[in-house]
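User: Please work through this fold.
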Amino acid sequence: MHKQLNKKHDHPLRPWFILGYLMNVKMDCEEVIEKVGSFGLYQKILGLFLCLLIAPFFAFNDITQFLLFVEPNHSCTHPTEQVYVYNDIVWFDASDKKIVKQCEIIDTLGNKTNCIYGHQYNYSHIYPTIVSENNWVCEQNWKVYFAYKIYWTGSLVGVYVIGAIADRYGKVPAIGVCHLIGAIAGTTTVFFAHNFVILLISRALMGFVVLSQGMFAVVLVMEFVGIDGRMIISTLFLFSYSITAAILPWIAYYIHNWRILSVITSAPLFIVPLYSGIDSLVDIERKARKGSKDTQKNCDHKQKKHF
């Protein structure tokens, strides 16, 4: 095995290979990574996995939350039978720019009233959203802010709960759980947008996993990368996230449908739970230090099979 370790480029870095080595020599994870290769083929594959899947999916969850609740330009709907009786409240600012008040209308006698006939929306710049579909404007716009608060409250709770799951069962199951919850909650939003309670639950679940789905994956990949390569991986992750976040509003604009946007940014999250090709190096080291006979037997069997 020692001869094989010296040939850094003969074999990609495999978790079970590290497990077998840790069981036979007393070295910590950093020393093993440097011994078998700190930024080889295996680490580059993990980097692609992080930048092409995890980072965009992280941006999908984070940015779509705002895109679903954008408020299009709107004004009061005028009664068709009295179109000349009610008018928008108009005034001019310091630069003589005409401004129409969005939440009140006035009759010919000067009496102000709320938008008792509903609201009309201008979708030339902003597409239809949950806000316009449910008329969450004017007196009802508190629901939008409440949904935001629920989302970020969920993220506050999620980092502790998902963190406990990661400590107990490992980072890979935690990452899978995060993306599975996000996929289900995101698609649920499409079907229950008119039910305020269910909508809040779905947004809370999206917030519950938003930070963990990206953070744990980054930590997981960093465990397999040497010190010199970690800056490259982290920079590429942030670059991928930023590019996705910059493109996503344009995608939303051209799709012009918040339901389709929610589906295409939620359904792909089902992909990640299907991936189980890696294990946390910290978990591997823990298993190695434990030195159970079953783990040793499985490791020896795999070494004979592949080497």
